[in-house]
Design brief:
With about 325 residues, this protein is an alpha/beta fold. The chain folds into two domains: about 1-150 and about 290-329, Isopropylmalate Dehydrogenase (3-Layer(aba) Sandwich), CATH 3.40.718.10; about 150-290, Isopropylmalate Dehydrogenase, CATH 3.40.718.10. Helices cover about 35% and strands about 20% of the residues. The protein has helices at about 20-30, 40-50, 95-110, 125-130, 140-145, 175, 180-195, 220-235, 245-250, 265-280, 315-329, and strands at about 10, 35-40, 55-60, 75-80, 115-120, 150-155, 160-165, 205, 240-245, 260-265, 285, 290-295. α3 (about 95-110) packs across α5 and α7 crosses α8 (about 220-235). The longest helix is centred in the middle third of the chain and has 17 residues, at about 180-195. The chain is globular and about 60 Å long.
Length: about 325
């Protein structure tokens, strides 16, 4: 941590036309046992503050400052100028580069040890791609910056779900379920549940790819040819694995009993269930990085931007998740 007792959290405000800036302002009006810094346009935050009457004092911040406890009603801002004027709810391709700059600066700060964890508000992948940047999401972006492998895990109050593949077209998923991919993901999961969550011997439930986990080969051979042999090899290294399990029952309360995390093969197989159960209180965690990164579980909500109606529950949960992980570390 930046000091022995006081963590410093760096927030990124995400897409300027979405609800991210007002989520950051809402966090400023709460008490936190940490220093809170937002990497965003100062003018953008001032505009939202005035429009929503949040009464937050925006103060300039520089990395060399000594950490100081968050004061309710104030928000330290690491200023990144916004290239184009912003209208809530209206995407502007000229601001795509600004969003990536905030993410890169935040990552550099934690890699340098100047901040302890990143909390990210939602970005709009489409407008970043329209700006000419091949961007598939926070998870892949931070992994590339840190030159590390990563695993996407979402958590809600009752359970956790991790993914073997993330933002990949469904038609490409079967070919991506390889022994190499499974070993990489499961090894990271096992390690980070120990190091970042303090779970001594994590129990990982693993879904099959096909309906009924392949039904003995009648509904697909990936479980027999790839998944089961790989799980057996990893069990022999001491990792506690259950599966492959039929996904439709693995992600029920009974099916998840005893699991520290359930590993799904692809995005919607796992996240549809988690978001149904915990939307608004769930968080997205990137495992495998040399730093802690937590995000909200929702998108930019352009239709709500600038109206003061955004649900702040997931942002609060993301802040608390990061603080919990820092305490374990």
């Amino acid at each position: 941590m930046t000091t022995e007792q006081l963590p410093r959290l760096i927030l990124t405000a995400g897409e300027p036309a979405g609800i991210g800036p007002e989520l950051c302002l809402a966090m400023a009006n709460m008490d936190w046992p940490a220093e809170i810094v937002v990497c965003a346009s100062r003018d953008l935050l001032l505009k939202y503050d005035q429009q929503l009457n949040t009464n937050v004092e925006i103060v300039d911040w520089q990395p060399e400052q000594e950490p100081s406890i968050h004061i309710k009603g104030k928000l330290a801002c690491y200023n990144v100028p916004l290239p184009a004027s912003n209208i809530p709810g209206k995407l502007d391709v000229r601001n795509g580069g600004y969003v990536l700059e905030t993410l890169q600066l935040a990552a550099e700060l934690v890699l340098q040890g100047r901040c302890d964890a990143i909390i990210t508000a939602p970005v709009h992948k489409g407008i970043i791609n329209d700006a000419g940047v091949d961007f598939s999401g926070h998870t892949e972006f931070f992994a590339n910056l840190a030159n590390s492998d990563s695993v996407m895990m979402l958590a809600c109050p009752d359970f956790r779900v991790a993914l073997v593949t993330t933002h990949l077209p469904l038609v490409e998923v079967p070919a991506a379920i390889t022994e190499e991919a499974l070993v990489r993901v499961i090894t990271i999961l096992h390690h980070d549940l120990q190091s970042k969550y303090g779970i001594e011997s994590p129990c990982i439930h693993v879904c099959g790819l096909n309906p009924h986990a392949g039904e003995g080969g009648h509904l697909g051979m990936e479980e027999i040819n790839v998944i089961s042999p790989c799980l057996e090899k990893l069990r022999n290294t001491g990792i506690n694995l259950i599966g492959p399990l039929p996904a439709d029952t693995a992600l029920t309360p009974l099916g998840m009993r005893g699991a520290d995390v359930t590993l799904a093969m692809y995005h919607d197989q796992g996240l549809s269930v988690l978001k149904y159960a915990g939307f608004g209180s769930a968080v997205n965690i990137t495992l495998g990085l040399p730093f802690i990164r937590v995000s909200v579980d929702h998108g930019t909500a352009l239709d709500l931007a600038g109206r003061g109606e955004a649900d702040i529950g997931s942002m609060i949960a993301a802040m608390n998740e990061a603080l919990t992980m820092l305490n374990v570390r």
